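Hi R.,

Here's the chain you asked about this morning:
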Amino acid sequence: MKAALYTKPNTIEVRNDVTDPDFLEGVMVRVKTTGFCATDVKMIKGLKKSFRPLPLIFGHEFAGEVVKSTVTKYVEGDRVAIAPFAGCGVCRFCLRGDEHLCRNRMLFSNGSTAEYTVVGPELAVKAGWKLPVDVTWEEGALTEPLACVVLSLRACDFRPGDSVLVLGGGVMGLLHVLLAKAWGARRVMVSEPGRFRREFAATLGADVVDPTNCPDVGSWARDLSGEGPDIIVVAAGSAEVGNAALQVAGRGSRIQFFGGMPSGTTVAVDTGLIHYSGVTLLGTSGFRSVDVQSAADMIRDHAVDLKQLVTHRFPVEEAQTAFETTQKEEALRVMVENTGW
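And here is the predicted structure, written out as tokens:
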């Protein structure tokens, strides 16, 4: 089969002679589109350890067509999106509802920048769904990142009427904007230095500010939200932004460290914020199966418009260009389209 492979830092090669994944049970999916996410970029740049030996087929946000199935939930020809992992279901984390912390995750066979991938039966049932004809492949591929944001806001104990400040206007920050508004936030604010992303956030209905031109983002946010934002999402992975969140926090704020930071990154916490002001610090990574199905329901019902987040599309043969484009400010979600099969 044809596949795009990460072969060495900053290098992607497209090969036509990659062995098809073995199929015994579950579903085999002919991949139609793959979202290029920040985790893929970090790995290909050599900043994050790859989870399999190189050369490696990458990609995990995908949608495609079922070509083989032993699962009653799916038949040949079904249009599907399946999240890349699910918890084992029996460990202490899964049993207490923290499936995203499971150490024994079920994974699919190979990355999704390939003609085919195979998903085991349990994973296909727990973390997959059938796309109606009025849902695009790209919307299906965005199920996984939306599920990550569903878990993020649920972990923050989001309530309708909350005010939300998002620090960072990349695609994951913008997904927080879309979801918070869909769930009934009374005000959503975005702090983002890049003009393109800041203006895009404004088109989604967020109040926006350029932190490089605002001497006190905290005062700006408090002027709009009262005591301070109920929820502050650190959607950019840097200590500077993390420390900014602590400066912005008001009484009772919940701070979500969502954007992944390099190992060993630290922020300075005044314990008085926690003890006297009731500020909560938390973080989530990934999603649970219930979050995937919630995201699927929202996409199915068109409760959020994800199509607008796709800014660039490339055929799989141009995966290297897609990788380079993803790192530009004007790129939100870049898709690698397998239109030739």
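One quick note: The two ends are 10 Å apart (CA to CA).

Cheers,
M.
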